Here is the input.
Amino acid sequence: MNFQELYDWIFHQHPESGGLPLKSTGIVLGLLLLGTHVLAAWKSEATISLLRRFPRQRLYGIVILAVCMVWSLFLAAYMDMGEFFTFRRYLLMIIPATFVLVIIYVPEFLAVRALGALMLLAASPVLHAAFLQPQISRLLLPILAYAWIIGGMFFVGMPYLMRDAVEWVTKTPMRWKLATGSGVAYGIVLLVAAFVSY
Here is the structure.
């Protein structure tokens, strides 16, 4: 499978040949939610410490932003741009240049901004996997994807909100338990739906 075929598969460009499966997407996301939130509940102190340090961790920001750059280059290289196809080569040059400029000139809360960009990018394949599927339970995926989109936009534009949110949710043990418990519950529901319905 070449990169163009991979792009077409992920984004269901040729429905007759299949695409990113709803079932597999549900299982992966369910396990991801379940695993991360169980670990966060089990290793509360370490996770809380990591979350509180994360917004100002420049190295994390550079690494996540590099992932976003590669992902964006992949999209720009293989997406159908219609009549704007002549701009593709310029876009492929602008993306790496933007990566460097952001690192140099937007150092404040770089990790949060990069995480927000990653959340925006990750939402698209999830939405494509659930698009036009008949099961009502498919809505579990778009709900998660739109939560990422809304959160990602705020993280990119107002990154200090993540710092404030982390401070709020970790202020009392009860809030932390509710947050981790909600993630565990959503992961379980998503896994059950994936195995039973998708």
